[in-house]
Write a structure and sequence with these properties.
With 205 residues, the protein is of the alpha/beta class. 28% of the residues lie in helices and 23% in strands. The protein contains six helices and eleven strands.
Amino acid sequence: MYRVFPIKNVEDLLHRYIRRLSSVFIQRHGRFRVALAGGKTPLDLYSMLALDWERINLYLTDERYSYEKSNCRAISQRIKGKLICPDLSKDLESCALEYSRLLPERLDFVLLGVGEDGHTASLFEGIPCRYITPKVCISKRPDGLWGVSLTYEYISSSCQVAFFVKGEEKKKVLEKLLSGVPMPATRIKTTRKVLIFTDLSLSKT
């Protein structure tokens, strides 16, 4: 179900992987369509990325419905490519609907994070994410903000999905992920093995 890459210099490895994968898709299809995780963990990675930006479409896995805490805003300050983001000037449902229309039928690659509570994107345990379309849903996040998120099914339909798990505080949730404990992150199911890039060493049994 998972293929794990545990390495201390995890950003370097993930950067090389994304570069290689983007080259394959660009050579075969002329474009690379990728959705990026929000949050603080991947920001250093995004600063490193050196890709063929003119042939890459960048999307978000989820967005906070808040200018001050916007994932789009934070990532745009780090990444050289242009992000395609939900339009926060619209009302919430229109924002989600319009974003869905901008998304491709299928993504080539999705990079996800995972919270200590097992959430991924803006998909949280016990909190319904109301579907606006099969690609996009909206939910009231635990922090009180509304979130616009890619749906489980749309993420799972992607050609390749990877989790980026970094920091000792994520060790327990990584163990749960690998054990298949029911939580939002383990509900991502793809036809290929889901990749996990982590700086954590795995327990030997």
